[in-house]
Every structure is written in structure tokens, then in C-alpha cells.
């Protein structure tokens, strides 16, 4: 159980989350199959087969939002509608008008919907009830927003807010590059995106490139700012930090995975290894967040 991306949220200060109550709320909105005329359904699933909706390892909780979506490509609908329009034109000797064509498309979609295949996907999230963190493993804003929408509709009063810092990530990343020095506890890796600060918004992306070279310094001197920067924390976790304070392409390095295996040594069943991985991830990430917040001037807490 290793997250690949993180959208970070803060739970309200002083919020007392009760695991049993959270379990009851999630259980009241489980994922159900799409009905004949539903294109998508969303609901909670068990993070571990046959387990609870809130998978707990001490005070670290894992949630899983399931989404079932029917696969009905617009091209298939359009092609079928065009075939029927051609048949009408051949049989009735008239051209199908624009409004009639729209009606045909709608009827075809309704007819095909019950026959469409469905696929499922899962969005994971982690609640650190000790330190007040909520992390959503989502590679896009749309996936994170979808998770938060269902969570807020399921659990009253939870009200997480996106993490904010005193120093904007783009400003901090640009300063680190300009000074040629990473903040304490971090090293700068070889992935970078620079953008022009003016109207053109032109971007330059570097992969496996020396970010401390004169070429990068020249771009920064010309006014470009860093919007993505690869970093490694304490030789344990590598990631790409974005200007929106997202952690992408998280990679938990071998030293952590070896620790997880050693912790579960002698009982390496699937459930035990899953819990060992999750416990180690949930134990290290708050330490990473503390160092990252320090590097970004501390947390900004709205009044």
C-alpha cells in the first residue's frame, strides 16, 4: 500500500473523529452497480476484501472511494445514429434534419446504455487522526475533487481544507534553484518545469537533467519560475513538488520497503504486508510534511 500522488488537506483543529462513527457513515453509502440508465455511480468500498470501510492501523485510517462507470463511447453512438439516419433517408427519400438527428442520437444512447460494459476504479485516501492530515492519492484535480465531494456528502462536519503555506511553492523552488541549495533534509533531483512569468506562459521541461547547471540559472535570471521540481527527502521518499503544493510521482525508496518487509518478517501474508506498508508510509509522511512546511515558511492558517 504505497500512494503514488498526494493532494494534501488539513482537518479542522480540534476535530474529534470517531472511527466507529466514520465507519457507520461510509457504510451508509456503499458503491452499488450502475442501473440500466445510470452512467456512473460512486460509493465507498472496503480497502481490504471482507474488511471494514475504515481500515485502521492504530490511529492511521485508510479509505477507498469506488466509482463504477459505463463505457459508451460517443463515437459508437454517433456511428449508430448515422446508420439509422442513412436508413431513413434511403427508405423515405428525405434528408434527416438537425433536430431529428439530435433526437436520434439521444434515442440510440438510451438504447445502448443498458448494454454498455462497466469498469470500476478506486481512489484511496489516508486520514492521520493524530496529526490532522488528509491525503488523497489522486493524479488529477478532478479525481481529488470527486473524492472530496463524496466525502463531504457522506460525513457531516469534517470540512477539510487544502494545505497552504506562508511561502508559495513556486517562489521557494525558484529560490532553491537560484541559490543552488536544497532545503534541510532534501536533495534536488533531475526533473524540472520552468514557466515564464509573463503573458506567454511558455514552459520548459527537463527530465534527467542537471538542475544546478548554468542553463537553469540563465532561465531563472531571465524571469522564469519553477512550477515543478523533483526532490528526495532523507534518501527515503522521492517526489515532484508542484506550484499547487501537490506531491506527484511519489516513490518510496528501497530503504523504506525493506523496513516494511522486515517489520512483517515471519508473517508475510498479504494482509500483514499490506498493513506493514501502510503503517510505514503513514509513519514517514508526517515527518516529510513537517520538513516541507519548514522549507516553505510554515503553514498558513486562514483566520
Q: Helices, strands, pairings?
A:
Blueprint: E1 7-10, H1 19-27, E2 40-44, E3 55-57, E4 60-71, H2 74-92, H3 98-112, E5 117-128, E6 133-137, H4 141-154, E7 161-162, H5 169-179, E8 186-196, E9 203-206, H6 214-221, E10 224-233, E11 237-242, E12 247-252, H7 254-263, H8 270-295
Antiparallel strand pairs: 1-6, 1-7, 2-4, 3-4, 4-5, 5-6, 8-9, 8-10, 10-11, 11-12
Helix pairs in contact: 2-3, 7-8
In short:
This protein is an alpha+beta fold.
Describe it for me?
The protein is an alpha+beta fold. The protein folds into three domains: 7-72 and 116-160, no CATH class; 74-114, no CATH class; 169-295, no CATH class. Helix content is 37%, strand content 26%. It is built from eight helices and twelve strands. It has helices at 19-27, 74-92, 98-112, 141-154, 169-179, 214-221, 254-263, 270-295; strands at residues 7-10, 40-44, 55-57, 60-71, 117-128, 133-137, 161-162, 186-196, 203-206, 224-233, 237-242, 247-252. Strands 1, 2, 3, 4, 5, 6 and 7 form a seven-stranded antiparallel β-sheet that branches. A five-stranded antiparallel β-sheet has the order 9-8-10-11-12. The longest helix is centred in the C-terminal third of the chain and has 26 residues, at 270-295. The two termini are 36 Å apart. The model has no long low-confidence stretch (mean pLDDT 90).
Amino acid at each position: 500500500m504505497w500512494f503514488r500522488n498526494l493532494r494534501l488537506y488539513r482537518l479542522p483543529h480540534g476535530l474529534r473523529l470517531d472511527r466507529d462513527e466514520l465507519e457507520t457513515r461510509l457504510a451508509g453509502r456503499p458503491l452499488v452497480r450502475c442501473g440500466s440508465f445510470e452512467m456512473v455511480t460512486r460509493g465507498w468500498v472496503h480497502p481490504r476484501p471482507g474488511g471494514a470501510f475504515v481500515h485502521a492501523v492504530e490511529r492511521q485510517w485508510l479509505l477507498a472511494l469506488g466509482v463504477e462507470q459505463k463505457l459508451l463511447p460517443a463515437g459508437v453512438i454517433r456511428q449508430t445514429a448515422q446508420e439509422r439516419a442513412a436508413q431513413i433517408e434511403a427508405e423515405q427519400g428525405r434528408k434527416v434534419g438537425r433536430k431529428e438527428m439530435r433526437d436520434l442520437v439521444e434515442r440510440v444512447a438510451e438504447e445502448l446504455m443498458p448494454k454498455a460494459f462497466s469498469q470500476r476504479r478506486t481512489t484511496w485516501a489516508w486520514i492521520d487522526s493524530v496529526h490532522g492530515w488528509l491525503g488523497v492519492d489522486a493524479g488529477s484535480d478532478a479525481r481529488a475533487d470527486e473524492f472530496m465531494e463524496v466525502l463531504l456528502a457522506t460525513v457531516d462536519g469534517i470540512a477539510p481544507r487544502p494545505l497552504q503555506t506562508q511561502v508559495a511553492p513556486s517562489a521557494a523552488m525558484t529560490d532553491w534553484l537560484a541559490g543552488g541549495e536544497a532545503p534541510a533534509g532534501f536533495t534536488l533531483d533531475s526533473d524540472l518545469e520552468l514557466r515564464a512569468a509573463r503573458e506567454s506562459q511558455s514552459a520548459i521541461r527537463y527530465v534527467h537533467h542537471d538542475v544546478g547547471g548554468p542553463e537553469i540559472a540563465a532561465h531563472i535570471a531571465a524571469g522564469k519560475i519553477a512550477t515543478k521540481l523533483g526532490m528526495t527527502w532523507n534518501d527515503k521518499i522521492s517526489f515532484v513538488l508542484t506550484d499547487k503544493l501537490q506531491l506527484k510521482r511519489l516513490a518510496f525508496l528501497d530503504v523504506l520497503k525493506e523496513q516494511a518487509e522486515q517489520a512483517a518478517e515471519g508473517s508475510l501474508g498479504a494482509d500483514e504486508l499490506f498493513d506493514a506498508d501502510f503503517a510505514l508510509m503513514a509513519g514517514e509522511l508526517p515527518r516529510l510534511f513537517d520538513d516541507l512546511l519548514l522549507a516553505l515558511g510554515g503553514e498558513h492558517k486562514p483566520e
